[in-house]
């Protein structure tokens, strides 16, 4: 569908399409037209024009989310286009804004907000080359360091050092870009471009480095903290983190797998868990919590009852929850506010069917995203599932891969899903009848792809036909066998893979050494 453009926007496109003419003419352009020209340049991927617009930016703020979002002149939201040409031109233009002494405009810029950029799976930019969150972190840190070196060597215009621009960004740090980001953060006071970390993600980093860099980010400003893959944070480290650093604005917290393991709890550990719960209770803004792949059996109440603000997002997938945990969730004040819920990896029909449906009924008026992967939902449970989902009229995403459902059951379920007016994304399992007879669930990785692909394609076509006949072309249905798209993992999978291989090799060497000693 083509989005309508105003005459102003069409004129802006015509102006920037001739890069040489546009760059020469910027000095005669009214200040209030810069945002319009920026979006037109971004749409056409006119890197040189984007650079010059930013270098001569005449306004007090530069907010990428607002500039690229829906406007009266052009309704299409371009903030999910992480085009490498455009973003690199933006950031180098920002550096040159500081260095440019001959700009015809008085330097007013005080705040640059890069947090509105969204990393998505499908890119529509012509160059097809993206600049993800990790690469944006890398480039901004590099430019800040280069800017300082240049200013110290040149000893040029003293007014340059008076420029102070807060650059709001979602940082993504791994072992590979750690040193560069640390240097940029250490020199923040001296640099005209001041990195202000609003969200921080850490993958593949030692605990020592994580603790060091998190203090440099100014945690008092952090709204989102993600400690994800290959950061060996355990419960005692989490308590240490919360005892030594305050996060007054933190709204979203993601913890790595195996942060908690109640199976080896001592009395000291129980106290530690309570302390962590109390510390989270002090975070008055916290509304999103992800603790997947921890073992939390019987302890959900200890962690969540101290929270004073209701959670809007909760991910407790593969956390070995028992009936008491589910009962607490269903009866807690969080239940009426949950917009996103992930209970994957729990045998819901067997362990706590009525309690789960009670939880679902409480959050049904606000629920937008529900994930029930590997939950042993079978054909006999589909009618009950439909009954539970019927009130969820705001549901936008439903993921249920890994469940032993037949083709017929999926068709029945899809017929119902067409009735959910807000639904946009469905992730469904490969039908059980596409696998060899006797397959056991959950299916191991080795057997995951051993199904009748031709039969699956026929079933997928039939499911899409159900959507089509119900005029629901707006719903995307897919089967991501190895999980949903994760932009951060996609961008750094080579580094993460190398790190996991290294870790496996070290473990193997230790085992071999121990075995040789025993021999």
From TrEMBL:
GO CC terms in record: cytoplasm
Record keywords: Leucine-rich repeat, Repeat
Keyword Repeat part of the UniProt annotation: yes
InterPro entries membership: LRR_dom_sf, LRRC14/PRAME
PANTHER family for the chain: LEUCINE-RICH REPEAT-CONTAINING PROTEIN 14B, SIMILAR TO PREFERENTIALLY EXPRESSED ANTIGEN IN MELANOMA-LIKE 3
Family statement drawn from the similarity comment of this UniProt entry: Belongs to the PRAME family. LRRC14 subfamily.
The protein, known as: Leucine-rich repeat-containing protein 14B
Species, as recorded: Tychaedon coryphoeus (Karoo scrub-robin)
């Amino acid at each position: 569908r083509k989005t309508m453009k105003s005459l102003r926007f069409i004129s802006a496109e015509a102006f920037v399409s001739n890069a040489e003419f546009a760059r020469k003419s910027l000095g005669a352009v009214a200040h209030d037209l810069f945002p319009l020209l920026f979006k037109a340049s971004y749409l056409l991927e006119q890197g040189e024009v984007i650079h010059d617009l930013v270098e001569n930016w005449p306004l007090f703020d530069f907010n990428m989310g607002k500039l690229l979002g829906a406007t009266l002149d052009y309704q299409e939201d371009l903030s999910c286009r992480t085009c490498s040409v455009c973003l690199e031109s933006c950031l180098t233009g920002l550096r040159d804004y500081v260095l440019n002494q001959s700009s015809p405009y008085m330097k007013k810029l005080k705040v640059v907000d890069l947090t509105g950029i969204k990393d998505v799976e499908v890119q529509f930019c012509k160059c097809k080359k993206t600049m993800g969150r990790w690469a944006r972190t890398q480039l901004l840190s590099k430019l800040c360091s280069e800017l300082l070196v240049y200013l110290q060597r040149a000893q040029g215009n003293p007014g340059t050092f008076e420029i102070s621009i807060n650059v709001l960004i979602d940082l993504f740090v791994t072992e590979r870009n750690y040193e560069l980001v640390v240097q940029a953060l250490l020199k923040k006071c001296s640099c005209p471009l001041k990195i202000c970390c609003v969200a921080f993600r850490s993958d593949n980093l030692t605990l020592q480095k994580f603790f060091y860099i998190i203090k440099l980010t100014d945690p008092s400003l952090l709204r989102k903290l993600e400690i994800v893959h290959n950061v060996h944070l355990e419960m005692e480290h989490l308590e240490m983190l919360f005892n030594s650093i305050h996060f007054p604005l933190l709204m979203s917290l993601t913890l790595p797998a195996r942060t908690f393991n109640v199976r080896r709890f001592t009395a000291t550990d129980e106290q530690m868990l309570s302390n962590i719960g109390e510390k989270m209770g002090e975070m008055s803004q916290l509304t999103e919590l992800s603790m997947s792949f921890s073992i939390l059996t019987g302890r959900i109440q200890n962690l969540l009852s101290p929270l004073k603000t209701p959670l809007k997002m909760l991910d407790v997938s593969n956390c070995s929850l028992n009936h008491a945990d589910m009962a607490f969730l269903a009866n807690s004040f969080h239940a009426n506010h949950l917009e996103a819920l992930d209970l994957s990896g729990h045998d819901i029909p067997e362990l706590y069917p009525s309690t789960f449906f009670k939880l679902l009924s409480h959050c049904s008026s606000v629920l937008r995203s529900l994930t029930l992967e590997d939950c042993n939902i079978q054909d006999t449970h589909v009618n009950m599932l439909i009954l539970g989902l019927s009130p969820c009229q705001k549901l936008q995403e439903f993921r249920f891969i890994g469940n032993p459902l037949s083709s017929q059951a999926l068709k029945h379920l899809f017929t119902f899903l067409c009735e959910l007016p807000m639904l946009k994304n469905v992730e469904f399992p490969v039908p059980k009848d596409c696998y060899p007879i006797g397959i056991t669930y959950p299916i191991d990785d080795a057997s995951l792809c051993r199904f009748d692909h031709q039969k699956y394609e026929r079933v997928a076509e039939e499911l899409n036909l159900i959507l089509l006949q119900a005029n629901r072309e707006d719903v995307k249905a897919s089967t991501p066998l190895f999980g949903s798209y994760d932009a951060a993992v996609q961008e750094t999978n080579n580094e993460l893979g190398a790190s996991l291989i290294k870790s496996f090799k070290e473990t193997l060497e230790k085992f071999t050494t121990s075995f040789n000693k025993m021999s």
